[in-house]
Design brief:
Ferritin; 52% helix; Rossmann fold; single chain; 9-stranded mixed sheet; alpha/beta; 5 domains
Length: 843
């Protein structure tokens, strides 16, 4: 069974991270990513005779495998494999696999390198079989690993990776697309890092374009070069050198000009001017001003401006300080603005980047018609993110909203506006670009009303503030509120019934019906497309179309934000749907017939030997490639499922009774007080003892009856004997009850095991018999549609919940007036005074 994308990424990371030991992630990444690279090009070369990378005979991954456990494995990998690949293809240096300082000495080095090779020597990692048309599964895996290594590398060592979410925004806002890009289109990144920005630009172009990148760190430049190859950009030019000191791309003594530039330079670089002739720069980069000696933000921005064609566009990530810092930077900013080079500014959330927690912004440059530019499009996107560990991360809906709003230049309240240059240049602002000067993002303060606290009631202004709801539910307002006095109302239904009153109101029901119809129409259109999915489809096109149409479907809805529904779809795509679509792209709907047995990887023992992998038994060890066993059970084996549920309920009931008996009889004087453990064995022993006592109890009972009949004086027998009779009989009943429930659990569990074994065989047998029509029904209706339907219900629930909570808050806020509080205080004071007087104290 082909490995899923999500499993590929997570399994690679888990294995590599476990093997890393004490080595810093920023160093270890070089070894892991090199291994991934060699494995990929080796697999690719086997399948494609025209693959752009040459893998010399004897220098493939298979040749690496032959070196496992050999004493010279590190040196042999360097000389026999990596150096030959480097020389054959003109690549940069690979990391040293014989470095004892990083990988250990002697046997430790042999074990570490051997185990690293073993991670990738896995049949499921045959990368030649895991790539759908138009997909770069290995390139994505490469970025996945880099993101995790960046997360693990610490504050100062994450500079080799720009978060993919930010890269996608930069590539979108520069405006490149398949309609305006050709194979001669050029894109450049002067601080290329791992190359992710350039690759995102190529993705937006929809075709191979000329990519150029320069990166100061040699090891990171090598990562970028490998990343280009993994993404099919083998001809990209990546140079390892200092961009500001020695620009690699020049023409006739001047900087080469590009159509598009993207960059995430190191923030506020202090040593930027080392080796740079700032007074008479040969490339004319500082004609608009010289940046401060110890802050290189504007040095990179000026370099980028000088690297743009007359119609060139750029997007640059810089710290917020570039927008408002004064002195030399203020003068440069003023000169740039006068030239009209800045098209837009996007403020991002803080703590997005791996190298710093400070907030950053994206500056969009456009030299085309710059002299006629009358305004700058500003956006404050700082509040849209989710927490991801100790970092913030942009969600799919945040990325989409930012790029949509910027592309459309749409003015959105408290989010974006076109700011006239005249406003920026006036005496008040003096070319300061700090976004809060131009966009007020402050939420309206929730003010307390003194009159309402004094006299009760909810201020009408607070109810009017919910106008978004009343526009949709005009009569619901009249149902929920009653006039109290001028300017104040009161809730007309008990607060405990608010949610029901809202949810059951005819207007809310009609709204939900309309919402459901919107969803159903969208889903019906999608299912017609999804029904036709087949081998060779382009998964990224599938999700792009679905997201586009979903946004359009919910665009006009007042209460359900289309971007929220988009987030649900994209999150489900990333978690589940993409694996299904990639499976169809590779093997068609027959992929739904496949399943596998899950295994637990064998661990290395103290003797150094790795134990065999062990299969996970039962249904828990069965994994369908597209269809989970549970889904088959729900649809085809409900009778068997119910039979198991009946037995499980019997176990649950019996266990509850055992718990009840134990809690009741485990006290100091309880029946189980003297037992070391309360279990079936100990209880059975106690029952035996109690039954022997009951024999005497029965004898006493017989004698008592006989004496009564003979009018014999019962006082001859001690009264305590009759009490013991009743206690013993009750105790026997309790103990028998306990053991009966233990027996119920034992028998039910045995039956459950038997039923599960039968069900497991039936489920496994069902997979290969599924028809294509059945597979489509299961995946499209019972899996995809069912999940998205649940997401819609969450949104419906959120609407009623938010309205209910707000009304409750207002009602409770003013429920107790100052007068009633004063009355309560006086009553309490009177009671206290009376008590004191009774105690002889005067008040």
């Amino acid at each position: 069974m082909a490995i899923k994308k999500s499993e590929l990424y997570s399994s690679l990371w888990a294995s590599c991270d476990e093997l890393r030991g004490g080595m810093d992630a920023s160093q270890y990444k070089d070894y892991v990513l090199t291994m991934l690279f060699v494995k990929y090009i080796s697999d690719k070369a086997k399948k494609d005779d025209h693959f752009a990378i040459e893998v010399p005979a004897g220098a493939s991954f298979d040749d690496m495998v032959q070196l496992i456990g050999t004493p010279n494995i590190g040196d042999d990998i360097n000389k026999k494999i990596l150096n030959r690949i480097k020389e054959e293809n003109g690549l940069n240096d690979f990391p040293d696999f014989n470095d004892e300082n990083k990988l250990g000495k002697g046997k430790d080095l042999v074990d570490t390198v051997s185990n690293l090779v073993r991670i990738f020597n896995d049949n499921s990692l045959d990368f030649s079989k895991n790539s759908a048309e138009g997909d770069d599964i290995l390139g994505d895996a490469y970025e996945y690993l880099m993101r995790h290594f960046a997360t693990e590398s610490g504050k100062s060592k994450g500079q080799f990776y720009t978060p993919a979410e930010v890269s996608r925004i930069l590539a979108k806002v520069i405006g490149i697309s398949p309609s305006n890009a050709t194979t001669q289109t050029t894109a450049y990144d002067p601080t290329a890092g791992s190359g992710s920005l350039l690759l995102k630009v190529m993705n937006e172009a929809g075709k191979g374009i000329d990519l150029y990148g320069q990166e100061k760190e040699t090891a990171t430049a090598n990562l970028a070069h490998m990343n280009m190859i993994l993404h099919g950009a083998e001809t990209a030019s990546i140079v390892a050198d200092n961009t500001l000191t020695r620009p690699a791309f020049t023409e006739d003594g001047k900087l080469k000009r590009f159509d598009y530039v993207v960059a995430n330079p190191p923030f506020s670089l202090k040593s930027w001017s080392n080796g740079v002739n700032v007074e008479s720069d040969e490339y004319g980069r500082f004609e608009l001003g010289v940046p401060p000696e110890k802050n290189g933000d504007y040095a990179f921005l000026l370099h980028i401006l000088q690297s743009l064609k007359s119609t060139g566009k750029a997007a640059v990530v810089l710290p917020h300080g570039v927008l408002f810092r004064g002195n030399a930077e203020g003068e440069i900013r003023k000169n740039i603005l006068k030239k009209g080079y800045i098209k837009g500014i996007i403020g991002l959330p803080a703590n997005l980047f791996y190298g710093t927690g400070i907030p950053a912004c994206i500056i969009i440059l456009d030299r085309e018609n710059a002299e006629h530019r009358k305004g700058i499009f500003m956006m404050d996107a700082s509040k849209g993110f989710t927490k991801d560990g100790n970092k913030n991360r942009l969600r799919e809906q945040d990325i989409r909203k930012i790029t949509d709003v910027f592309t459309e230049q749409a003015e959105v309240s408290k989010f974006s506006r076109m700011v006239p240059i005249s406003e920026i240049a006036d005496a008040k602002n003096d070319y300061n670009l700090n976004i809060p000067r131009y966009i007020d993002t402050q939420e309206a303060e929730d003010l307390q009303n003194i009159e309402a606290h004094l006299q009760g009631g909810i201020p009408l202004v607070d109810v009017d503030a919910l106008q978004n709801y009343w526009n949709v539910f005009p009569t619901l307002r009249k149902t929920l509120f009653e006039n109290l006095r001028e300017g104040f109302v009161q809730v007309g239904v008990p607060t405990s019934e608010l949610k029901t009153a809202i949810f059951d109101h005819s207007e809310f029901v009609a709204f939900n019906t309309n919402l459901q119809n919107t969803f159903d129409q969208w889903m019906q259109q999608q299912q017609q497309l999804w029904e036709n999915l087949s081998v060779g489809v382009h998964p990224k096109e599938i999700i792009a179309q679905a997201g586009e149409t979903l946004l359009a479907a919910f665009e006009s809805n007042v209460l359900v934000n289309g971007y929220d529904m988009y987030q649900h779809l994209m999150q489900y795509w990333n978690e589940t749907m993409q694996d299904d679509v990639y499976s169809i792209a590779l093997d068609g709907w027959k992929a739904a017939n496949e399943y596998q047995r899950l295994v637990v990887k064998g661990k290395k023992g103290k003797d150094g030997k790795v134990a065999k992998d062990k299969e996970i038994g039962g249904l828990a060890g069965v994994e369908g490639r597209m269809i989970a066993p549970q889904l088959l059970i729900d649809i085809y084996f409900s009778k068997e499922k119910n039979a198991i549920a009946t037995q499980e309920q019997a176990v649950e009931n019996a266990q509850a009774r055992l718990t009840e008996l134990e809690e009741e009889h485990t006290g100091e004087e309880g029946l189980f007080a003297d037992l070391e453990k309360v279990n079936a064995t100990e209880v059975a022993k106690l029952l035996k003892e109690k039954k022997s006592l009951s024999v005497r109890a029965q004898s006493l009972s017989v004698r008592a009856q006989s004496r009564t009949q003979q009018s014999i004086d019962l006082a001859a027998e001690p009264e305590s004997s009759y009490g013991e009779v009743n206690v013993t009989l009750i105790e026997v009943e309790v103990l028998e009850d306990y053991l009966e429930n233990v027996d119920v659990i034992k028998k039910a569990n045995a039956e459950i095991k038997k039923l599960n074994e039968t069900l497991e065989k039936a489920v496994v047998a069902k997979y290969p018999t599924l028809t294509e029509a059945e597979s489509k029904d299961l995946v499209l209706n019972h899996k995809w549609k069912a999940h998205l339907q649940n997401c819609l219900q969450q949104e419906q629930e959120r609407i009623s919940q938010n309205l209910t909570q707000r009304i409750k808050l207002l009602a409770e806020r003013y429920a107790t007036t100052l007068v009633s509080l004063d009355t309560q205080a006086n009553e309490a004071a009177t009671k206290v005074k009376a008590h004191l007087q009774k105690m002889g104290w005067s008040w």
